[in-house]
Design brief:
The protein has 2 helices and 12 strands, in the order H-E-E-E-E-H-E-E-E-E-E-E-E-E. It is α+β, with helices and mostly antiparallel strands. The chain folds into 2 domains: 32 residues; 108 residues, no CATH class. The longest helix is centred in the N-terminal third of the chain and has 31 residues.
Length: 165
């Protein structure tokens, strides 16, 4: 009977040691991943009738249809005067929506991505719900980043400044 008790204690201590080691491994892995920062939220947009990604201030985030897999189109001062990249500091993991990541811009800064596409705000969007950049066309088409599966055709708001740069 005493032997069974010692065996149970030995198994218990082995399991406890394994859990401590696993916890240490997971903590070290999380520490190496860098700090996380909530930079994106979701909000229901009444104009587009779908949920879109927004900044912490509630400003709509967009992606350009031809920017993906590390390919940047919006790099010159003219484009960047319309579209402001959503940036994070080196080592920061962006959070707030699934499938967020980062990509290094040609100027070396880290830009937040959604499904691999760089995220930007549009210079005419000033309030929550503004989507003046939706459907803006130049070398590709700008669309509000959305986790919604809905692909219903929605007429984009009229851009009083036309398209392109």
């Amino acid at each position: 009977m005493a032997r069974i008790g010692k065996l149970r204690i030995g198994v218990f201590l082995s399991l406890l040691l394994a859990l401590v080691l696993l916890g240490g491994f997971l903590a070290a892995r999380a520490a190496n991943a860098g700090p996380s920062m909530r930079v994106v939220m979701t909000a229901r947009n009444p104009t587009l009738h779908k949920t879109v990604l927004v900044t912490r201030r509630g400003i709509t985030l967009y992606s350009l249809s031809v920017e993906q897999k590390g390919r940047f189109i919006c790099t010159n001062s003219q484009c960047l005067s319309f579209w402001t990249p959503l940036l994070v500091a080196k080592g920061v993991r962006p959070t707030g929506a699934p499938r967020l990541g980062t990509v290094r811009r040609p100027d070396g800064r880290l830009q937040v991505t959604y499904h691999g596409r760089p995220l930007y705000t549009f210079y005419l969007d000033h309030r929550r719900g503004d989507v003046m950049g939706e459907g803006f066309k130049d070398v590709g088409t700008w669309h509000a980043a959305s986790p919604s599966a809905s692909t219903a055709a929605v007429k984009p708001p009229t851009n009083p400044y036309g398209g392109g740069y």
